[in-house]
Write a structure and sequence with these properties.
The protein is α/β, with parallel strands linked by helices and about 260 residues long. Helices cover about 35% and strands about 25% of the residues. The protein is built from ten helices and 17 strands. Helix 1 crosses helix 3 and helix 6 packs parallel to helix 7. The C terminus is likely disordered.
Length: about 260
């Protein structure tokens, strides 16, 4: 019979497991450590206080920190097919006559690319890439003013905020860098966070988060919304089952994009 592990050994193994798998179920950790659920729960509580993980319903996720904003080109190369599918599905949620806020990012860029030609739709965005790519769109496309943000190819700052204060939207479609039950939806810079918070505040209808599966469990620097402040999350089918379990108690509808998109209209 092997000797039981001491707390430091158990916590080290938990960290190693999460580094590989990103997500851990309580039952799997108990089996791996040959320890009771109460013992493992105490270890998870200790690791959470150290900022290493985030406890979830039935387990834990690795607390992946994003300390800086990736360059736009890096984002483009990350999960491009998933982002295309997410963008198409999110665009299908825009209805006749909608005024929609859309922030910067490569996933939201895909949303704007997939909006159907409809002159009754108005889009307000700080996404410079989308503004350049859409060209002569069949919908009204407004680029808000502001200070240029080179890493994200967007605009932000006081002028952007003041322009947003003149509009009320029916929907906000928001790309984020991290989604967490406890930390909510986060982005790397305060400049983008201020723009997104203003968009959400000026939205009378649904707040829709677009984020591929890699964003789950990631915590960036600035919170833009709690989980309970959003209405829908549009993601891809690779999102972990434990994430769905954690979201179940919250009033958030999760839509999973696939290669077969059925448009809402």
């Amino acid at each position: 019979m092997s000797k039981p592990l001491i707390p430091a050994q158990r916590r080290e193994r938990i960290q190693e497991y999460l580094t590989i798998h990103q997500v851990a179920r309580m039952v799997d950790l108990c089996n791996m450590l040959d320890a009771s659920e109460a013992t493992v729960r105490r270890d998870l509580e200790w690791l959470e206080k150290k900022g290493i993980l985030e406890r979830t319903h039935g387990g834990a996720t690795l607390n992946q920190r994003m300390a800086f904003e990736p360059e736009y080109i890096q984002r483009v190369q990350s999960f491009p097919e998933e982002k295309k599918m997410i963008g198409e599905l999110a665009a299908s949620l825009i209805e006749d006559g909608d005024i929609v806020f859309i922030n910067s990012g490569t996933t939201t860029n895909q949303v704007i690319r997939n909006i159907q030609n409809n002159p009754s739709i108005s889009i307000f965005t700080n996404n410079l890439n989308a503004a350049l790519e859409v060209g002569d769109a069949g919908f009204h496309h407004y680029l808000i003013g502001g200070e240029f943000q080179p890493r994200s190819n967007s605009v932000a700052g006081r002028f952007a905020i003041e322009n947003l204060k003149q509009v009320y939207a029916d929907k906000a479609i928001i790309g984020v860098d991290g989604v967490s039950i406890k930390r909510g939806c986060t982005v790397p810079t305060n400049a983008e966070a201020e723009v997104v918070r203003q968009m959400i505040e000026r939205t009378n209808g649904q707040v829709i988060i677009v984020a591929d599966h890699s964003k789950w469990g990631v915590v960036s620097n600035f919170q833009v919304a709690t989980i309970d402040e959003i209405d829908k999350i549009v993601t891809d089918q690779q999102i972990d089952a434990s994430a769905m379990e954690d979201l179940a108690p919250h009033s958030v509808e999760v839509l999973m994009a696939s290669s077969q998109i059925v448009r809402a209209r």
